[in-house]
Design goal:
GO terms for molecular function: oxidoreductase activity. The protein has 291 residues and is of the alpha/beta class. The chain has twelve helices and eleven strands. Helix 4 runs parallel beside helix 6 (123-135).
Length: 291
């Protein structure tokens, strides 16, 4: 019996030892990670990846488990893996203008970018990348709009109430139980109007799913707005804020079109969502839990 316990203890020790090797990736919201980085006086190392990226998988399987790499990165950084197509990933992608994978990003506790490099790295190369990040004296601060939007993630929105084309008041709380994809637009905004056909395609593609497509116009000319709805045969839920700045102020919107994704509880998933015309939008919506 003692021999059996000894073998079990050995196996547990090996398992724990295996877990100790390689980079330890932290979990938590972006806000929590920033707070941890501030508290510990460390940079955050972000592995910006996607599920379909083969070089990303190669690093995950061959480089991140390295004991030497793990020792260096665990000592000097708060490490996090972030899928750029899920959760807070799209927000980070937009905030830091990530356009290739993997992107190895280093930011400080204020969210300012300190260093980045693109592409798969081998063990020695990744160690050098980390050393270069620590030695970097350059910081690119995140602009105030991006900081405001990042802070919104996971926050429940106020129960905004606007009128539809018939004059009926519609509260955002009426969408509870469904995801909500919001399009902030106006008839006089050409880029906004160019997205209308793509918005219609999204509505058709996700018909019957647990998601509402809300087009919120900031037109003050209600007749022009209603005419556009008829002319373009716009579907979905059409609302008009009548020039009320509350919605735009809450989300820190400085220009349109602007897209937002809310969860079924009315909490912000992505305050700066991709456009209907972008392929990543369909992919992101398709992967929403419970849709």
């Amino acid at each position: 019996m003692k021999q059996v316990y000894f073998i079990i203890a050995m196996l547990c020790g090996l398992a724990l030892g295996g877990q100790a090797q390689g980079i330890r990736f932290a979990e938590g919201s972006w806000k929590e990670l920033l707070e941890t980085a501030k508290k510990e006086g460390k940079l955050i190392f972000v592995d910006c990846y996607t599920e379909w990226c083969q070089p990303c998988k190669q690093m995950e399987q061959q480089v991140f488990p390295s004991e030497k790499v793990g020792k260096f990165y665990n000592e000097h950084f708060i490490n996090v893996k972030m899928d750029m197509e899920k959760g807070e990933g799209p927000v980070i992608l937009n905030t830091y203008k990530i356009n290739a994978f993997p992107t190895l990003l280093f930011v400080n506790g204020e969210g300012g970018e300190v260093y980045r490099i693109v592409g798969s790295k081998k063990e020695a190369e990744l160690l050098q990348v980390g050393a270069d990040a620590l030695a970097s004296k350059t910081v690119y601060p995140v602009n105030s709009q991006a900081q405001q939007q990042i802070a919104l993630i996971g926050r429940e929105i106020p129960d905004f109430c606007y009128r539809d084309s018939t004059g009926k008041e519609v509260k955002f709380s009426s969408f509870r139980g469904n995801y909500v994809y919001v399009d902030m637009w106006a008839t006089w905004c050409r880029p906004c109007c160019e997205e209308i056909p793509y918005m219609g395609e999204l509505e058709k593609k996700f018909h019957g799913k647990k998601i509402c497509f809300v087009s919120l116009s900031c037109d003050k000319d209600l007749q022009a707005w209603k005419k556009k709805l008829r002319t373009d045969r716009m579907g979905g839920i059409q609302l008009n804020c009548g020039g009320d700045p509350a919605f735009m102020k809450f989300f820190g919107i400085q220009g349109i079109p602007h897209f937002i994704l809310l969860d079924p509880e009315g909490k912000v998933v992505n305050p700066n969502m991709s456009r209907p015309s972008q392929e990543i939008t369909v992919e992101t919506l398709s992967r929403l839990k419970g849709i």
